[in-house]
Automatic annotation (TrEMBL):
The gene is ACO2. This is Aconitate hydratase, mitochondrial. Pathway: Carbohydrate metabolism; tricarboxylic acid cycle; isocitrate from oxaloacetate: step 2/2. The keyword 4Fe-4S applies. It comes from the Eukaryota. Catalyzes the isomerization of citrate to isocitrate via cis-aconitate.
């Protein structure tokens, strides 16, 4: 529905040409209400409130605002009284909506059920995308997933129906593509229980990945807390061309800022180069901003977003955004905490890896680097798709490369898989021939799901421990992430580069300069791919896979069997006893990188995401123990035997002994999975002490009543040994900004004291004292 003023103007123009002029009442010139989504016709976009709040903050701060600030501050619970200081104060915000993927939605909905509330307070959706394992192809894999996950899907569907949450069935597609197609819009504040929620920044929204407990707060109608983000500006000049793609922008940025360079900040892209990037290309860039630790990323509203909104059936949102465009772009003269400039005209195709997404190389150099480092140059598998790169444009560019190879009688030398981002994308690329071309070149089209990107891959071509290389268009390449093989060297790049490398079969191929040999023996070069950013015809929606929450929810029931191995109702964690944490054993002192994949592995463990006790059997099994250099092997301080980490933690818990984890830099980077916080709490952990934390994981730990603490002096990491005992003292005076003391007791009887910092505010201290944020919520309800 276009705004009434526009309709009235058009009506008057038409009628003025006729015999009779009609009077149109001024009241009709009020702005029309525009729904957030056609799935929720009674939930409206509230740009008026956004405008009102921005004006209040503008007046208070008396300076130009970045776009990030406009949207974030535009959603303040109390814009008049809220303290606002980038990187320091905590903001109380009112998000517009919540999105949850099926692996994290289980625990989020279990927590919401525990809250005792009758229904969600904001529009919310569940998306079934994580539990479908890639094996044989889309149809068979989806059928198998529906069978083995029936109990979980039924729980999520009935919980959604009972509490007013929309439910996207398995086969719908990946959560972030569904959000882009249906729910994201310029100026939205959306939180999602997945770290790649920032994908929605491609449509000009602030979309932030969180843990399930944060989602419960918002669904319960409680203001959501976020540390006021700093803002890093990325100024884009020039324009993309040739083999360079939007993916190369974020791969370049990751190489500059590293995996922790964006921590505590929003990445805001701006500048004249923005207009050379499609809306879905902008989403790709924002999506992978999670890999540099950013709170989120976004682009300013422009004609590319308007075009995408119109093509996905939301022209009325685009028209409304046009009216409020001044609030959907940064103010002239706004200042950034850090500024990076990238000339897109000079940007070369990139490929990052292995084992970390910030190890950046140009495609031209990676083969040489691989040979020097001893990385396998032969590519076993090329994989395109994922939430990062599965748009119509992505598939079109990959198909353009494949079509050239087929014209010369070639197919992929490497295995090749294709993951459509949504049912709409799948149906449209089937109709328009892209899927057929990708199959003809050797590709296997997988289900509309996360699949190998998150370790849901029943890989058969290699054995565990066998050194090999894969190339993907995914976002993460941590050790063992895709196939549970620590010797798989995974590289991330654009879909078109993956396709070209899969055809050549080697990292040593550079499509910009190198030639291939056709079936006729003649040399030829691949031309840079060109494809439409959006289909010429309308999108084909494919099968209807959405379940609306019923209007009458009175008869809805949610059953969780007490004997289930997949689902388990939650018991509240114990409250703090008012005492210092004394003589805690060190479960493990972690050496080096420790992501949420190391803390709570995905892959085969995904089936236990709704059963806290069962999934706790994967606690820290991927982390490297500094004592012996091994994974999942720690010393039991009570019997001196080495054993698995979860077993040791359970032994301590059974004997009433509190324990602590000591970690390195950027502890908990990666996924938003709150299981990495729930598991240590469930098994008796009380504190995690590190050099630094990733944002989401630090918050998740606080939510579950744990103490995430950092060394005041990072060198103190070296003072602690796995056989020591640690005491955290001063908790009776626990206060924001006040460091805590840690007494290290060595086995020889000596001891030393170090200082630990924290980022707790008053509300978060209440979570710790109550035992968890959920416990605190219940206390407040009772009062």
């Amino acid at each position: 529905m276009a705004p009434y003023c526009v309709l009235v103007t058009r009506l008057q123009q038409v009628l003025s040409k006729g015999v009779r002029r009609y009077h149109v009442a001024p009241v009709l010139c009020q702005r029309a209400k525009v729904a957030m989504s056609h799935f929720e016709p009674n939930e409206y976009i509230n740009y008026e409130m956004l405008e009102k709040n921005i004006n209040i903050v503008h007046k208070r701060l008396d300076r130009p605002l970045t776009l990030s600030e406009k949207i974030v501050y535009g959603h303040l619970d109390d814009p008049v009284k809220q303290d606002i200081e980038r990187g320091k104060t905590y903001l109380r915000l009112r998000p517009d909506r919540v999105a949850m993927q099926d692996a994290t939605a289980q625990m989020a909905m279990l927590q919401f059920i525990s809250s005792g509330l009758p229904r969600v307070a904001v529009p919310s959706t569940i998306h079934c995308d994580h539990l479908i394992e890639a094996q044989l192809g889309a149809e068979k894999d989806l059928r198998r997933a529906k069978d083995i996950n029936q109990e979980v899907y039924n729980f999520l569907a009935t919980a959604g129906a009972k509490y007013g949450v929309g439910f996207w069935k398995p086969g719908s597609g990946i959560i972030h593509q569904i959000i882009l197609e249906n729910y994201a819009y310029p100026g939205v504040l959306l939180i999602g229980t997945d770290s790649h929620t920032p994908n929605g920044g491609g449509l000009g929204g602030i979309c932030i990945g969180v843990g399930g407990a944060d989602a419960v707060d918002v669904m319960a109608g409680i203001p959501w807390e976020l540390k006021c983000p700093k803002v890093i500006g990325i100024k884009l000049t020039g324009e993309l061309s040739g083999w360079s793609s939007p993916k190369d922008v974020i791969l370049k940025v990751a190489g500059i800022l590293t995996v922790k360079g964006g921590t505590g900040a929003i990445i805001e892209y701006h500048g004249p180069g923005v207009d050379s990037i499609s809306c879905t290309g902008m989403a790709t860039i924002c999506n992978m901003g999670a890999e540099i630790g950013a709170t989120t990323s976004l682009f300013p509203y422009n004609h590319r977003m308007k075009k995408y909104l119109s093509k996905t059936g939301r022209a009325e949102i685009a028209a409304l955004a046009d009216e409020f465009q001044a609030h959907l772009v940064p103010d002239a003269g706004c200042e950034y905490d850090q500024l990076v400039e990238i000339n897109l005209s000079e940007l070369k195709p990139h490929i990052n890896g292995p084992f970390t997404p910030d190890l950046a190389h140009s495609v031209a150099d990676v083969g040489t680097v691989a040979e020097k480092e001893g990385w396998p140059v032969d590519i076993r598998v090329g994989l395109i798709g994922s939430c990062t790169n599965s748009s119509y444009e992505d598939m079109g560019r990959a198909a353009a490369v494949a079509k050239q190879a087929l014209a010369h009688g070639l197919k992929c030398k490497s295995q090749f898989t294709v993951t459509p981002g949504s049912e709409q994308i799948r149906a449209t690329i089937e109709r328009d021939g892209y899927a057929g071309i990708l199959r003809d070149v050797g590709g296997v089209v997988l289900a509309n799901a996360c699949g190998p990107c998150i370790g849901q891959w029943d890989r058969k071509d290699t054995k565990k421990g066998e050194k090999n290389t894969i190339v993907t268009s995914y976002n993460r390449n941590f050790t063992g992430r895709n196939d549970a093989n620590p010797e798989t060297h995974a590289f991330v790049t654009s879909p078109e580069i993956v396709t070209a490398l899969a055809i050549a079969g080697t990292l040593k191929f550079n499509p910009e300069t190198d030639s291939l040999t056709g079936a006729d023996g003649k040399k030829f070069k691949l031309e840079a791919p060109d494809a439409d950013e959006l289909p010429t015809l309308e999108f084909d929606p494919g099968q209807d896979t959405y379940q609306h929450p019923p209007k009458d929810r009175s008869g809805q029931h949610v059953d969780v069997s007490p004997t289930s191995q997949r689902l388990q109702l939650l018991e509240p964690f114990d409250k703090w006893d008012g005492k210092d944490l004394e003589d805690m054993l060190i479960l493990i002192k972690v050496k080096g990188k420790c992501t949420t994949d190391h803390i709570s592995a995905a892959g085969p463990w995904l089936k236990f995401r709704g059963h806290l006790d069962n999934i706790s059997n994967n606690l820290l099994i991927g982390a490297i123990n500094i004592e012996n250099g091994k994974a999942n092997s720690v010393r039991n301080a009570l019997n001196q035997e080495f054993g698995p980490v979860p077993d040791t933690a359970r032994y301590y818990k059974k004997n009433g002994i509190k324990w602590v984890v000591v970690g390195d830099e950027n502890y908990g980077e990666g996924s938003s999975r709150e299981h990495a916080a729930l598991e240590p709490r469930h098994l008796g952990g009380r504190a995690i002490i590190t050099k630094s934390f990733a944002r989401i994981h630090e918050t998740n730990l606080k939510k579950q009543g744990l103490l995430p603490l950092t060394f005041a002096d990072p060198a103190d990491y070296n003072k602690i040994h796995p056989v020591d005992k640690l005491s955290i003292v001063g908790l009776a005076d626990f206060a924001p900004g006040k460091p805590l003391k840690c007494i290290i007791k060595h086995p020889n009887g000596s001891q030393e004291t170090i200082m630990l910092n924290h980022t707790f505010n008053e509300t978060q201290i209440e979570w710790f004292q109550a035992g968890s944020a959920l416990n605190r919520m219940k206390e407040m309800q009772q009062h």
